[in-house]
TrEMBL record:
Native source species: Marinibacterium profundimaris
The family this protein is said to belong to: Belongs to the MurCDEF family. MurF subfamily.
Protein name: UDP-N-acetylmuramoyl-tripeptide--D-alanyl-D-alanine ligase
GN (gene name): murF
Record domain Mur ligase central: where: 106-295
The enzyme's E.C. designation: 6.3.2.10
Organism lineage: Bacteria, Pseudomonadati, Pseudomonadota, Alphaproteobacteria, Rhodobacterales
Reactions that this protein is recorded to catalyse: D-alanyl-D-alanine + UDP-N-acetyl-alpha-D-muramoyl-L-alanyl-gamma-D-glutamyl-meso-2,6-diaminopimelate + ATP = UDP-N-acetyl-alpha-D-muramoyl-L-alanyl-gamma-D-glutamyl-meso-2,6-diaminopimeloyl-D-alanyl-D-alanine + ADP + phosphate + H(+)
Length: 478
């Protein structure tokens, strides 16, 4: 059964199809388009209409456009609409309306993508599950995810993000979730908000899309929790809190970060609970409680969910941990790499540094007898006028005392570099490229290396450089 027919898509969007067609998927990118996809010609850095001919050559079933693009035949399979973005939103709403899926929407300053991935993996063990790809969580990502949702989906997990006020509520209303999760509220995107309370109000707006008798799963540890609670109560939602404080319904009582996993003792449903998450980090452990609360709200099997959590692991750029073997002959000569180069703000930086501090370097493997904990940190963007102080303040984190060397990249990270004790102060460069020079000489077998920064800093190049130094051990490369 096709995902969209020309008739259904035209009815949803109010558009006109030039010929009859059937599509098995929806794509906005000719680099990843698959034969049978409907190509959506969005306007972004470039006008998607410039790529319609290429999409059709690659086997697209049709293209969603405002006009017949140059170089495309008049009888080509097209769905012509007044505005492509508006039509995509209409297609998303139609995709949501035609399914009986139980829908979860997730937002938060930190952890929304990993929580989405965690919940999707847990639910996929129990039914046909559809989820956002990567971080498709904005004004085009949410409708695209909904438009891609098969009609027979049983569970859907939709990630919703924001950069500015007023973005979350419309997307939440489009998703119409039965369950809404707010992972946390932190100092991210402060350039667009007056204060942390403004960020909390925007995150709380996810509740505006809740279906009647819906459930709001909220981080009860937050100082801004009352703002989240008020928004949920305004929708008469059932509220479930999670976190580490005694007031939380789902509460972690002990979190142990081990090699390759985090083991948690908790209380949920007034019952002692022991579970393991297949990734290292307190933040993963706490957000797993939100996942379990969502499973309960969806009336899925909690026992199976607890077992499935152990098999989940972090994705590339978001805390993925791997072993890199530096010598193809002596496979003991290896280091551990923590790839967290996709995003950064003070809260996620603190969580990642805690993971590094808990890591166990190995001695006696390389040129340097003692294995080290090494951090390569890039600027945290969009923090507003307090940005330099927030960067320098990282030096006060308890985990910093256990880190041997901190290298810094970016104008803002210069503040941290200056605040570091000389014994732990590594290199500082304004850009990433100079950090690559001589990198092999600054790391060694037995080291554990964290790479973290905002995506625009390009620290993924450091990750790639370290991986290419040797031969990643596929046994550990998750």
């Amino acid at each position: 059964m096709s995902l969209w027919t020309s008739r259904d898509a035209a009815r949803a969007t109010g558009g006109r199809s030039t010929v009859a067609w059937e599509a098995d998927g929806v794509s906005i990118d000719t680099r990843t388009i698959q034969p049978g996809d409907l190509f959506v010609a969005l306007k972004a850095a470039r006008d998607g209409h410039e790529f319609v001919a290429q999409a059709l050559e690659k086997g697209a079933a049709a293209a969603l456009v405002t006009h017949v693009p140059e170089g495309v035949a008049e009888d080509a399979p097209l769905l012509i609409v007044d505005d492509v973005q508006t039509a995509l939103e209409a297609l998303g709403r139609a995709g949501r309306k035609r399914t009986k899926a139980r829908v979860v929407a997730i937002t938060g300053s930190v952890g929304k993508t990993s929580t989405k991935e965690m919940l999707a993996e847990v639910l996929s063990d129990q039914g046909r599950t559809h989820a956002s790809v990567a971080s498709y969580n904005n004004h085009w990502g949410v409708p695209l995810t909904l438009a891609r949702m098969p009609a027979d989906t049983e569970y859907a997990v939709i990630e919703i993000g924001m950069n500015h006020p007023g973005e979350i509520a419309p997307l939440a209303k489009m998703a119409q979730p039965h369950v809404a999760i707010v992972t946390t509220v932190a100092a991210a995107h402060l350039e667009a908000f007056e204060n942390i309370e403004g960020i909390a109000a925007e995150k709380a707006a996810i509740c505006e899309g809740l279906e009647p008798r819906g459930t709001a799963i909220l981080n009860g540890d937050l100082d801004t929790y009352p703002i989240l609670e008020a928004a949920a109560r305004a929708k008469t939602a059932r509220i479930v809190t999670f976190g580490e404080s005694s007031r939380c319904h789902h509460r972690a009582t002990d979190v142990h970060i081990a090699s390759g996993a985090t083991v948690v003792q908790a209380r949920a449903w007034r019952t002692p609970l022991l579970y393991k998450v297949g990734a290292e980090g307190r933040h993963y452990a706490i957000n797993a409680l939100a996942v379990l609360a969502a499973v309960f709200a969806l009336k899925a099997d909690r026992g199976r969910a607890v077992l499935a959590l152990a098999g989940w692991s972090a994705v590339s750029g978001r805390g993925q941990r791997m072993t890199v073997v530096l010598d193809p002959v002596d496979r003991h000569l290896a280091l551990e790499l923590i790839d967290d180069a996709y995003n950064a703000n003070p809260t996620s930086m603190a969580a990642a540094l805690e993971v590094l501090a808990a890591a166990d370097p190995r001695d006696g493997l390389g040129r340097i007898a003692k294995g080290r904990r090494i951090a390569i940190l890039g600027d945290m963007k969009e923090l507003g006028p307090e940005a330099e102080a927030l960067h320098a303040g990282l030096v006060e984190l308890p985990s910093m005392r256990k880190i041997d060397v901190v290298h810094c990249v970016g104008p803002l990270m210069k503040a941290l570099h200056a605040a570091l004790p000389p014994a732990h102060r590594g290199m500082w460069h304004e850009e990433t490229k100079p950090m690559l020079r001589g990198l092999r000489g600054r790391i060694d077998g037995g080291d554990v290396i964290l790479v973290k920064g905002s995506l625009s800093m390009g620290l993924s190049r450091v990750v790639d450089a370290i991986r290419k130094m040797g031969h990643p051990d596929t046994q550990y490369d998750e």
